[in-house]
Specification:
CATH superfamily of the largest domain: Tetratricopeptide repeat domain
Distance between the termini: 46 Å
Radius of gyration: 16 Å
Order of helices and strands: HHHHHHHH
Number of strands: 0
Mean pLDDT: 91
CATH architecture of the largest domain: Alpha Horseshoe
Strand content: under 5%
CATH class of the largest domain: Mainly Alpha
Low-confidence stretches: 1-9
Number of helices: 8
């Protein structure tokens, strides 16, 4: 029951942001939220390209919003755009180096572009600055994944 209610609420927000974008919103957050609500790590290339386009518009409208850069980095990594992915994820961290979530995004990008040592280092840095159980758990889970899947 709760899952259904959350799904309906998310669907409503998705429709709201999609309409705002369709009407040519000049608010960066509308583009970011549309992308965040439609982002799926296992999405196909067409879906990822649509998410990327929305995020690019978000950062064009506001180049100081780290969340959009972090997600853009992850999307670009999935689209096999390594340099662009690294640039976006690094920008997110430069905007807010205390954000565990930005550092974890950078770590995932580094992993995705075959820089495992740097990915582990970044994930460990995220664990060092984590402020709550949720952040510590997310960082530790990513470190564990990296360690388990790292090739000798």
């Amino acid at each position: 029951m709760i899952v259904s209610a959350v799904f309906l609420l998310a669907s409503g927000f998705l429709a709201f942001y999609a309409k705002a974008v369709e009407l040519g919103s000049t608010n960066f957050y509308a583009y970011y939220r549309l992308a965040a609500l439609t982002w799926r790590p296992n999405a196909d290339a067409d879906s990822l390209t649509a998410v990327k386009k929305s995020l690019e518009q978000s950062v064009a409208l506001n180049d100081r919003f780290g969340n959009a850069f972090a997600l853009l980095g992850e999307v670009r990594a999935r689209l096999h755009e390594p340099e662009e992915a690294l640039t976006a994820a690094t920008r997110a961290v430069s905007l807010d180096g205390r954000s565990v979530w930005h550092r974890l995004s950078l770590a995932r990008v580094l992993w995705g572009i075959s820089r495992p040592d740097q990915a582990v280092t970044e994930a460990r840095q995220a664990l060092t600055i984590a402020r709550g159980d949720n952040e510590r758990k997310a960082a530790q889970e990513l470190i564990d994944f990296f360690e388990k899947n790292r090739r000798p």
